[in-house]
Amino acid sequence: MSSRHRIVLAVNDVTVEREVESRLLLADFLREELELRGTHVGCEHGVCGACTVLVDGQPVRSCLMFAVQAAGTRIMTVEGLTRGDELHPLQEAFWEAHALQCGFCTPGILMTIYHLLQEGAGLEDEGEIRRALSGNLCRCTGYQNIVDAVRIASRHNDAVKMAGEGC
Amino acid sequence: MKPAPFEYHAPATLGEALRLLSEAGDDGKLLAGGQSLVPLLNMRVLRPSALIDLNGVPELRVVKTSDGNGLSLGAMVRQRTLERDPLIRERVPLLSEAAALIGHMQIRTRGTLGGSLVHADPAAELPAAVTALSARLTVRGPSGVRTLSSEEFFIGPLTTALAPGEVLVDVLFPPLPPGTGWAFVELTRRHGDFAIVGAAALAHLDGAGRVDFASMALCGTGGTPYASPWLGDVLHGERPRAELIQEVGRRLSESVEPDGDIHASAGYRRKVAGVIGTRALALALDRAQGPHRAEVA
Known about the structure:
The complex is a heterodimer of chains A (167) and B (297).
Chain A: E1 4-11, E2 14-21, H1 26-33, E3 52-55, E4 58-61, E5 74-76, H2 89-96, H3 106-118, H4 126-133, H5 144-155, H6 157-164
Parallel strand pairs in A: 1-5
Antiparallel strand pairs in A: 1-2, 3-4, 3-5
Helix pairs in contact in A: 2-5
Chain B: E1 7-9, H1 14-24, E2 28-31, H2 37-42, E3 50-53, E4 63-66, E5 70-74, H3 79-84, H4 86-91, H5 93-99, H6 105-108, H7 113-119, H8 125-132, E6 136-141, E7 144-149, H9 150-153, E8 154-156, E9 159-160, E10 167-173, E11 181-187, E12 197-205, E13 211-219, H10 231-235, H11 242-255, H12 266-287
Parallel strand pairs in B: 1-3, 2-3
Antiparallel strand pairs in B: 4-5, 5-10, 6-7, 6-10, 8-9, 11-12, 12-13
Helix pairs in contact in B: 5-8, 11-12
């Protein structure tokens, strides 16, 4: 028996209401129920970081949380970064530094770094940047261009913060 | 990789959680931060018929001072809070330093103090930290409340003294003498991995610069944290010296009884226990503040 529950939550500033099975993972809820497929599902046990989203402003693995637990929260996914067709400055930095190849890991990295920049973390030092990225696996790039992109984004942090307001 | 079906309950009080847990019987599981439990559900290693989610129980999130300068932390306090909360950092900096080494930030934002202790992974940081800190663990169940030391609580790998129907409620950290030095040091293959060996150390110096209190616990060296019960005999009344610290390292290597696994052989863990224990003790002594600050090579 799997119980069903009615949940109401805000996803990228839109209020959504759905009935969900208790075992539905938040990652699958976002992808299948809300069709927000920017959140990627890699390992499904919290290791790869591709499914990272913000729940009440905190980065979490959406594969290790049930949708029913997100009732009443505010969620931000990678789709919430853009303003219409305009890329977020953080995404621009990834573009500029050629920081993605297949792009599978990118949404989780963007949400993690977005959170740290919002918190005012200065990500200038390479060691600091690599520690910030340590919870997100990338199998294509060798990380160097991601490190570069994060440094560019950090230098533009004021602009990033400005664009992030209201998220 | 999807969990088997289960009933989900979200109690708002501890009393309700205890009632639901006892109703669910052997097939019920408590859900804390979910960072160890949900992977096991996703892989269907575990298939509980009911999950009782403790995330909505405010009394389990309380951070309060106790016993003068001691601190009581609810079992559902997040690891990210242990890492960053100013009061916790001030009162039990060892706990903050240990918490910062758990997994990654995105794990610590959900993972909890109590969840890690109850899971009792032999390589986890928090069981070693609470052991070194001589914390008292309060558990509540159908037959009332009891308080356990960490040595009583951890009884084997992934096994605690929690009886069916019992919940870990809070952890009481007794006050440390002012100026107590602390350190949590671990060896991992990659940042954020489980420790191959980790060491939690505390040390205090008297007015003459001699050790009058020292405590150490290791993780990754056996089924439960290794509490080095002989440490006081070696250090008390002594001024910190490099040879003394080396002696502690040698005794650690001789005393622990690790198993080998895919990550490290038993012999390697034994060797590393001495090295990491030495580093943790040296750092704790270095941080111990007194009129005669330790001079450690």
